[in-house]
Protein backbone atom coordinates (compact mmCIF):
# COMPACT_ATOMS: atom_id res chain seq x y z
CA UNK A 1 0.00 0.00 0.00
CA UNK A 2 1.39 3.38 -1.01
CA UNK A 3 2.13 6.05 1.58
CA UNK A 4 -0.31 8.93 1.62
CA UNK A 5 0.72 12.51 1.00
CA UNK A 6 0.13 14.97 3.85
CA UNK A 7 -2.84 16.39 1.92
CA UNK A 8 -4.33 12.92 1.49
CA UNK A 9 -3.82 12.19 5.20
CA UNK A 10 -5.63 15.42 6.00
CA UNK A 11 -8.46 14.39 3.67
CA UNK A 12 -8.81 11.10 5.58
CA UNK A 13 -8.94 12.96 8.92
CA UNK A 14 -11.50 15.43 7.61
CA UNK A 15 -13.59 12.75 5.93
CA UNK A 16 -13.94 10.88 9.22
CA UNK A 17 -15.59 13.94 10.80
CA UNK A 18 -18.80 13.84 8.77
CA UNK A 19 -18.24 11.30 5.97
CA UNK A 20 -18.78 14.06 3.41
CA UNK A 21 -16.10 13.70 0.73
CA UNK A 22 -16.72 17.11 -0.86
CA UNK A 23 -16.47 19.03 2.41
CA UNK A 24 -13.51 16.92 3.53
CA UNK A 25 -11.68 17.78 0.30
CA UNK A 26 -12.31 21.50 0.85
CA UNK A 27 -11.17 21.34 4.49
CA UNK A 28 -8.09 19.37 3.42
CA UNK A 29 -7.07 22.17 1.08
CA UNK A 30 -8.39 21.07 -2.30
CA UNK A 31 -10.10 23.62 -4.53
CA UNK A 32 -13.75 24.22 -3.72
CA UNK A 33 -14.43 24.35 -7.48
CA UNK A 34 -13.31 20.74 -7.97
CA UNK A 35 -13.95 19.39 -4.46
CA UNK A 36 -16.84 17.17 -5.53
CA UNK A 37 -14.73 15.40 -8.15
CA UNK A 38 -11.64 15.36 -5.93
CA UNK A 39 -13.54 13.86 -3.02
CA UNK A 40 -15.00 11.10 -5.18
CA UNK A 41 -11.60 10.42 -6.77
CA UNK A 42 -9.82 10.33 -3.41
CA UNK A 43 -12.31 7.80 -2.03
CA UNK A 44 -11.58 5.46 -4.95
CA UNK A 45 -7.85 5.50 -4.11
CA UNK A 46 -7.09 2.09 -2.61
CA UNK A 47 -4.65 3.46 -0.01
CA UNK A 48 -7.02 6.21 1.11
CA UNK A 49 -9.96 3.79 1.28
CA UNK A 50 -7.86 1.40 3.39
CA UNK A 51 -6.94 4.21 5.82
CA UNK A 52 -10.58 5.31 6.09
CA UNK A 53 -11.78 1.74 6.68
CA UNK A 54 -9.08 1.12 9.29
CA UNK A 55 -9.88 4.35 11.14
CA UNK A 56 -13.63 3.60 11.11
CA UNK A 57 -13.01 0.09 12.47
CA UNK A 58 -10.76 1.48 15.23
CA UNK A 59 -13.38 4.08 16.15
CA UNK A 60 -16.09 1.42 16.26
CA UNK A 61 -13.96 -0.75 18.54
CA UNK A 62 -13.01 2.21 20.75
CA UNK A 63 -16.59 3.44 21.19
CA UNK A 64 -18.25 0.05 21.28
CA UNK A 65 -20.71 1.27 18.67
CA UNK A 66 -21.19 -0.85 15.60
CA UNK A 67 -23.90 -1.61 13.07
CA UNK A 68 -25.36 -4.42 15.16
CA UNK A 69 -25.71 -2.19 18.22
CA UNK A 70 -27.35 0.58 16.19
CA UNK A 71 -29.81 -1.83 14.60
CA UNK A 72 -30.62 -3.39 18.00
CA UNK A 73 -31.41 0.07 19.43
CA UNK A 74 -33.58 0.95 16.44
CA UNK A 75 -35.44 -2.35 16.78
CA UNK A 76 -35.92 -1.82 20.52
CA UNK A 77 -37.44 1.62 19.95
CA UNK A 78 -39.62 0.29 17.14
CA UNK A 79 -40.99 -2.55 19.31
CA UNK A 80 -41.46 -0.89 22.69
CA UNK A 81 -44.97 -0.16 23.96
CA UNK A 82 -44.74 2.90 26.19
CA UNK A 83 -47.74 1.72 28.25
CA UNK A 84 -45.70 -1.33 29.27
CA UNK A 85 -42.98 0.78 30.84
CA UNK A 86 -44.65 4.00 32.07
CA UNK A 87 -47.63 4.34 34.40
CA UNK A 88 -49.94 6.77 32.57
CA UNK A 89 -51.46 8.07 35.81
CA UNK A 90 -48.22 8.95 37.59
CA UNK A 91 -45.74 9.20 34.70
CA UNK A 92 -43.46 6.94 36.72
CA UNK A 93 -41.41 4.20 35.15
CA UNK A 94 -42.84 0.82 36.07
CA UNK A 95 -40.64 -1.47 38.15
CA UNK A 96 -40.88 -4.18 35.49
CA UNK A 97 -39.39 -1.90 32.81
CA UNK A 98 -35.92 -2.86 31.67
CA UNK A 99 -33.15 -0.33 31.23
CA UNK A 100 -33.14 -1.16 27.53
CA UNK A 101 -36.85 -0.37 27.23
CA UNK A 102 -36.45 2.98 28.95
CA UNK A 103 -34.12 4.04 26.12
CA UNK A 104 -37.33 4.71 24.17
CA UNK A 105 -38.25 7.53 26.59
CA UNK A 106 -37.07 10.92 25.39
CA UNK A 107 -38.21 12.82 28.49
CA UNK A 108 -40.58 12.85 31.45
CA UNK A 109 -41.80 16.19 32.78
CA UNK A 110 -43.78 16.62 35.97
CA UNK A 111 -44.84 20.06 37.16
CA UNK A 112 -47.14 21.51 39.77
CA UNK A 113 -49.74 23.92 38.52
CA UNK A 114 -51.55 26.03 41.13
CA UNK A 115 -55.32 26.10 40.75
CA UNK A 116 -58.08 27.59 42.86
CA UNK A 117 -58.66 24.13 44.37
CA UNK A 118 -55.01 23.48 45.21
CA UNK A 119 -52.05 22.29 43.23
CA UNK A 120 -52.59 20.16 40.17
CA UNK A 121 -49.83 17.99 38.78
CA UNK A 122 -49.25 17.83 35.04
CA UNK A 123 -47.30 14.94 33.62
CA UNK A 124 -45.83 14.67 30.16
CA UNK A 125 -43.99 11.68 28.74
CA UNK A 126 -42.26 12.06 25.40
CA UNK A 127 -41.01 9.02 23.57
CA UNK A 128 -38.43 8.66 20.86
CA UNK A 129 -39.97 8.80 17.37
CA UNK A 130 -41.19 5.25 16.78
CA UNK A 131 -42.12 5.95 13.16
CA UNK A 132 -38.57 7.09 12.45
CA UNK A 133 -37.19 3.94 14.08
CA UNK A 134 -39.50 1.78 11.98
CA UNK A 135 -38.51 3.71 8.87
CA UNK A 136 -34.79 3.22 9.58
CA UNK A 137 -35.31 -0.49 10.24
CA UNK A 138 -37.34 -0.82 7.05
CA UNK A 139 -34.69 0.95 5.00
CA UNK A 140 -32.05 -1.34 6.46
CA UNK A 141 -34.12 -4.32 5.35
CA UNK A 142 -34.57 -2.83 1.87
CA UNK A 143 -38.31 -2.33 2.26
CA UNK A 144 -38.39 1.30 1.20
CA UNK A 145 -36.33 2.07 -1.87
CA UNK A 146 -36.21 5.46 -3.50
CA UNK A 147 -34.82 4.04 -6.71
CA UNK A 148 -35.85 1.27 -9.02
CA UNK A 149 -33.39 -1.59 -9.40
CA UNK A 150 -33.31 -2.54 -13.07
CA UNK A 151 -30.44 -5.00 -12.98
CA UNK A 152 -31.14 -8.04 -15.09
CA UNK A 153 -29.34 -11.35 -15.24
CA UNK A 154 -29.73 -13.49 -18.28
CA UNK A 155 -30.13 -13.02 -21.98
CA UNK A 156 -31.79 -10.05 -23.58
CA UNK A 157 -33.32 -10.31 -27.01
CA UNK A 158 -33.48 -7.09 -28.97
CA UNK A 159 -36.37 -6.94 -31.41
CA UNK A 160 -36.42 -4.25 -34.03
CA UNK A 161 -39.88 -3.16 -34.98
CA UNK A 162 -39.31 -1.40 -38.26
CA UNK A 163 -42.41 -0.08 -39.98
CA UNK A 164 -42.90 -1.40 -43.50
CA UNK A 165 -43.54 0.73 -46.50
CA UNK A 166 -47.11 0.56 -47.64
CA UNK A 167 -45.88 -0.14 -51.14
CA UNK A 168 -44.59 -3.62 -50.16
How far from one another are the termini?
67 Å
N-to-C order of helices and strands: HHHHHHHEEH
Count of discrete alpha- or pi-helical segments spanning 4 or more residues: 8
Total DSSP E strands: 2
Strand content: 5-15%
Strand order of the largest sheet: 1-2
Sheet having the most strands: 2 strands, antiparallel
Shape type:
extended
Query: On the 0-100 scale, what is the average pLDDT?
Result: 88
Q: What is the radius of gyration computed over CA atoms, rounded to a whole number of angstroms?
A: 27 Å
Task: Write down the domain tally.
Answer: 2
Low-confidence region ranges: none
Which structural category do the helix and sheet elements fall into? Answer: alpha+beta
Helical residue percent band: 40-55%
Oligomer: single chain
Explain this structure to me?
The structure is a single chain. This protein is 48% helix and 12% strand. The chain is an alpha+beta fold and 168 residues long. The protein has two domains: 59 residues, Orthogonal Bundle (Arc Repressor Mutant, subunit A); 65 residues, no CATH class. The chain has a two-stranded antiparallel sheet with strand order 1-2. Helix 1 crosses helix 4 and helix 2 packs across helix 3. The longest helix is centred in the N-terminal third of the chain and has 18 residues. The radius of gyration is 27 Å and the shape is extended. The termini are far apart. The model has no long low-confidence stretch (mean pLDDT 88).
